[in-house]
Amino acid sequence: MEKNLKEVKAFLAKCGIFYLATVEGDQPHVRPFGAVEIINGKLYLMTGKVKDVFKQLTANPKIEICGTQPSGTEWIRITGRLVNDESIAVKEKMLKHYPELKSMYSATDDNMAVLYIADGEARFFSFTEPERKVQF
After folding, report:
1. Global pTM?
2. How far is CA 18 from each of CA 86, 110, 111, rounded to the nearest angstrom?
3. Quick one: which of 12, 25, 84, 90 has the most CB atoms within 10 Å?
4. What is the distance between the alpha carbons of residues 22 and 28, in angstroms, rounded to a whole number?
């Protein structure tokens, strides 16, 4: 599982920007994300609690993520549930990896949300290779 987790994180990091899909009622919503990190054996993302995305995830934590490598010939689709983690230590670690976000978030503010992917499944696609699935 750890190997799978590292592979998924490395792929997303290489994408730079990846897209997170949520749903509100019967309407899907997609937005760009870029911060992703492995902390305590879990794959974390971060956002603000005041954002619509957090409200949508609170109502329905199921997500799908899609990202494309710079070459445009490889992409990933990830499904799972996002679980909010209120740990100050995890928030501090996330900000250590993404110091540029310190102007928007603080580990002790009421806004910063760090969420990990539970029940994760990643599907890797390529124009030249067969689809491959991993659990994490």
Report:
1. 0.95
2. 24, 25, 22
3. 12
4. 6
